[in-house]
Amino acid sequence: MTDYLNSTFLLRNQTAVFLYENFAKDMPIIDYHCHLSPKQIYENHHFQNITEIWLGGDHYKWRVMRANGVDESYITGDASDYDKFVAWAKTVPMTLGNPLYQWSHLELQRFFDIKTLLNENTAHEIWEKTNQLLNGEGFGARDLITKSNVQVICTTDDPADSLEYHMKLQADKDFGVKVVPAFRPDKALEIRRDTFGPWLKQLEQAVGKEISSYSDLLQALQSRAEFFHQIGCRVSDHALDIVPFEEATFDEVSDIFAKALRGEVLTTLEEHKHKTCTMLFLGKLYARLGWVMQLHMHAARNNNTRMFRRLGPDTGFDSMNDGQLAEALCALLNTLDEENLLPKTILYSLNPKDYPVMAALMGSFQGDGVPGKLQLGAAWWYNDTLDGMLEQMKTLANIGLLSRFVGMLTDSRSFLSYTRHEYFRRLLCNLLGEWVENGEAPDDKELLGKIVRGICYENAQAYFSFG
Ligand SMILES: O=C(O)[C@@H](O)[C@H](O)[C@H](O)C(=O)CO
Q1: Cα torsion 287, 289, 292, 295: sign
Q2: Ligand 1 centre and the CA of 411: distance in Å?
Q3: Which keywords has UniProt assigned to this entry (predicted)?
Q4: Which one of 139, 165, 186 terminates a domain?
Q5: Statement: residue 3 has pLDDT above 90
């Protein structure tokens, strides 16, 4: 059997190998979007076993286990951790072709030095070896981050969050990794969801005052954003499953907010007016703070009502929205730009049909002397696959500037997912290497090295200015 995932994994030509070894492999990681727990980082959480760290919250794995016919009790149910791991081990061979197959073995190799293929027959030995290591020194959350050469971690945080653990981490001079929050005010926009009322109470607690008007809401959001800024936040994040754009006066939206506070049902039009007005307020706020605005668009979340009632969000029952994007997104960006208050913005869509639309639209708003002011976001979720990453990079190269791309992120809930950066860096170097060896690009190692270093690290360092 060939040495699986060997040193030239995904590097199919000599130029690719040279670029990866000399310019990509050792660059630090700036993980500017993830869902890791700042509490677990602060506490250097030690994981009981491989099931906790690998399967504890990873709905990517849960989805393929379901598709493989595994009973829910072995996924999110009450089966033992060992039985859940065996169920995953039985599934892994069936994932061949899905990046989970490569990621799983890459993680076993990079963190546990295990080169054995995971399957039902090897499950027990791998369970034993991984748990022995996890229960020893050097496998706490902080250790895994440090081993992965991570320099910055951007978690995903609600405006009402106390940021207790971010502050504790920043006071801890023994931990050399910067852990900063990202401002994710989705619940402020989702005015028709039943989460809105309870969340408003949490926000009132956080700002120490009642929120009884739309003006109060905006003041509270601004106050929290300024607090987040003090704690090092330089990026916001929005899940815009659809991009609404319905202009309305401040008074109209204030009336809509009052109607919601009275518990009255809002129309879709009223919801969209609220979302549009709030997004415009926040976009201008981000521009004034110098933040980056991330828009995660066209997810179709929580499709399975029965399972949503049972398990809640982010449990593997999401898919892609195939709606239209161009007009509303252009109106949002243009309205902000007209006041010279369009922030640095990263556009993600869960539907790759939107890549050329977003890449072309970006070109209408680049400028202000900021290289890559608008970014085509890294291949997201169902697209962070070999094909998806290549499609995103090729679209950006064809329509915009790949050289100014701020590169990969893990977007993960697992501390073992940093191998996704390696996977991406290998793909990037192979893409450039193929262009060189096909004669489509010059064999100019200085230029190629500058571009590779930029996409792997230097562009993100300059773009996010985390300090
Ligand atoms: O940030 C998001 O909305 C998504 O990334 C979502 O959290 C999803 O669960 C995910 O992690 C996809 O990688």
Answers
A1: negative
A2: 6
A3: Isomerase
A4: 139
A5: no
Residue of 33, 35, 64, 238 to test ligand 1 pocket, by largest number of atoms within 8 Å of CB: 35
DSSP 9-56: TT--SHHHHHHIIIIITT--EEE-S----HHHHHTTPBPSSHHHHHHS
Where does 65-170 show beta strands of DSSP type E?
150-154
Pocket of ligand 1 (CB under 6 A): 35, 239, 296, 314, 381, 411
**Is the domain of 51 the same as that of 41?**
no
The amino acid present at 462, given as its one-letter code, is A
Could you tell me which residues come within 8 angstroms of residue 209 by beta carbon, excluding any fewer than 6 positions away?
A: 216, 220
CA 156 to ligand 1: nearest atom? 1
Per DSSP, which regions of 301-447 are E strands? 319-320, 344-349, 374-376
Return the residue whose CA atom lies nearest to atom 8 of ligand 1: 314
Query: Which residue, judged by its Cα, is nearest atom 6 of ligand 1?
Result: 314
Which among 312, 367, 299 is positioned nearest to 59, based on CA atoms? 312
Q: Do residues 323 and 411 share a domain?
A: yes
Which protein residue's CA is at the shortest distance from atom 12 of ligand 1? 381
Q: Which residue has the tokens 């001079």?
A: 173
User: Hey, whose CA ends up nearest to atom 5 of ligand 1?
Assistant: 411
List the Cα angle 195/196/201 in 5-degree steps.
100
What are the pLDDT digits (tens) for 92-139? 999 999 999 999 999 999 999 999 999 999 999 999 999 999 999 999
Residue 7 lies in a domain: no
What is the best residue among 381, 383, 389 to mutate for testing ligand 1's pocket, by most ligand atoms within 8 Å of CB? 381
387-435 pLDDT, tens digit per residue, is: 999 999 999 999 999 999 999 999 999 999 999 999 999 999 999 999 9
Query: Cα(310)–Cα(308) distance, rounded to whole angstroms?
Result: 5
ipTM for the predicted complex: 0.93
Domain of 74, in residue numbers = 46-139
The answer to the question of residue 456 being in a domain is: yes
Q: Are residues 240 and 257 in the same domain?
A: yes
Q: Tell me which of 294, 351, 411 to substitute to probe ligand 1's pocket, judged by most ligand atoms within 8 Å of the beta carbon.
A: 411
Ligand 1 atom with the shortest distance to the CA of 59: 9
User: CB–CB of 433/16 below 8 Å?
Assistant: yes
CA torsion 449-453-459-462 (nearest 10°) is: -110
pLDDT given for residue 417 in this prediction: 95
